[in-house]
Each structure stands twice: as C-alpha cells, then as structure tokens.
Specification:
This protein has helices at 11-26, 35-44, 51-59, 89-99, 118-127, 140-151, 156-161, 195-199, 245-249; strands at residues 4-6, 78-81, 84-86, 108-112, 132-137, 164-168, 181-186, 201-212, 216-223, 229-237. By secondary structure, the chain is α/β, with parallel strands linked by helices. A hairpin with a 2-residue loop joins strand 2 (78-81) and strand 3.
C-alpha cells in the first residue's frame, strides 16, 4: 500500500499491554454482578483511564447486549450465535480508550461487525445527536436483534432520531454513505487491512482493527492530515475472522 509507514511499538509498551491483558484475564471479574462494578474493576487494573470511557460504559448496560442466561459482567468474550462473539469488556474498553479522541461530539464513527450493537451504542453516546454512529453487521438476524437491544439502552433516543443507524452489509466494504469517518472500529480479524476502510477514514481519523490469522495484533491505523497512513501494533489479540457471511456461517 502506497504512502504507508509501519510504526512499531517499543518492546516495553508491548510488554506492558500484554501484562495488563494477563492481569485482566486472571482477575476475571467472575463475582461482578453490576455494570458499574465491572467498569470500576477495569479502572482498578488500568484498562480504563479516561472519565469519558468510564461514563459511557457505565451508561450502556452490557447485560442488554449479551444472550439471555450469559453472565454479562464477566471479563470474557461471549458467543452470540452464528459463529460470532461479543468481545470481552476489557477489549471494548481498550478500543474505546484508543478511539476516544476521535469520538468527540459531532464526529462520525463506524463499527464494523457490530454484532449485538454494544459498541455502536457507546459510539453514539460519545458523538452525540449531532454526530453519526453506524453499525454494520452481515448476519441479518444479529442486526435485527441489535436494534432491539439498542432500543432498550441509553442510546435508544439516538436510534430513534437517526444519529445511530444499524445496517446489514459486508463490513469489509465499509459504509460509504456516511464517510469519511473520524473513528472506525473493526470487531473481527482481517488477514490484511481492507482498503475501502482506509479510503473511508477521514484525514486525522483513526481505525482500530485486529489483523492476522493464527497470530493477530490489534493495529492502530492513523490517517495523517496529508493523507498518508501510519500503523502501529497495540497488543496481541485473538478475534474471530473478518470474512464473508457464508464462510462465517459455515465456520470456515
């Protein structure tokens, strides 16, 4: 890809990120039974540092976005059907922290692989009614259920007013109608960064995307004001693959 510069994180930063991830997994929060306590747990272990991220995660109750019967506040990914998962709270918090400067009121945000709608709802509350938060999900049943989830959440009024929208589509192609985006989040691992998403990123914008197959890294993609691209690795991760609907349903 032309004008792309790979910026590698230092060994210490990678070690620190990995250490935090291990701590969060070890202190799994299995005793947490309230949304606020979950957020405080993530703050205590340094995953959440900003007041805005803490506030939005307190306002969007995770229990509304996990399947009935699943423990909503345990710091672990949860299956949501159709070979998909909702990410663990610490990963949602990590991505919100990385994107928070690009989720200011009035900005545009895209959530690729929006699943149950949790992170899209968080985005919508952060960019507010003057902004735009788009969730795109290629499993129609998940997209339909995500709308019902959001309707029960703190972001319900934004869905009704139209600043939050949930669509069925191939997230690898983005959603050009509301581009360019200040923030793009991808909730599944791509073998390489999809060019349509890079194209739809606004100069000054940031994308967070897991990249890789067996070995995956959470990449932070910044589009500079001159249109050039800088990429760095934040930490090692493990996500389901970003693929076609048919491949996902057949678990291939």
């Amino acid at each position: 890809m032309e004008c792309m510069t790979i910026v590698r994180s230092g060994v210490y930063c990678l070690f620190l990120s990995a250490t935090i991830a291990i701590l969060v997994r070890f202190f799994s929060g299995s005793g947490i039974n309230k949304n606020k306590a979950m957020v405080e747990h993530l703050q205590r272990y340094g995953v959440i540092n900003s007041k805005r991220v803490a506030q939005v995660m307190e306002n969007v109750d995770r229990a509304l976005f996990v399947p009935h019967g699943s423990p909503p506040y345990v710091d672990s990914p949860m299956p949501i059907g159709y070979n998909a998962t909702i990410s663990a709270p610490h990963m949602h918090a990590t991505c919100l922290e990385l994107l928070q400067e690009n989720l200011q009121p009035g900005m545009h945000a895209l959530d690729v692989g929006s699943g149950t709608g949790y992170l899209t709802a968080c985005f919508a509350l952060m960019v507010g009614p003057q902004g735009c938060a788009i969730g795109i999900e290629h499993i129609p049943e998940l997209a339909a259920s995500s709308i019902k989830n959001v309707e029960k959440s703190a972001a319900a009024s934004l869905l009704k007013e139209g600043s939050l929208k949930l669509h069925v589509g191939d997230g690898r192609l983005g959603w050009p109608e509301c581009a360019p985006y200040d923030a793009i989040h991808v909730g599944a691992a791509a073998p390489e960064i999809p060019q349509p998403l890079v194209d739809q990123l606004k100069p000054g914008g940031r994308m967070v995307i897991p990249v890789g197959n067996i070995f995956q890294d959470l990449k932070v993609v910044d589009k500079n004001l001159d249109g050039s691209i800088s990429i760095r690795s934040e930490t090692s991760v493990r996500y389901v693959p970003l693929t076609s609907r048919d491949a996902q349903l057949h678990n291939s």
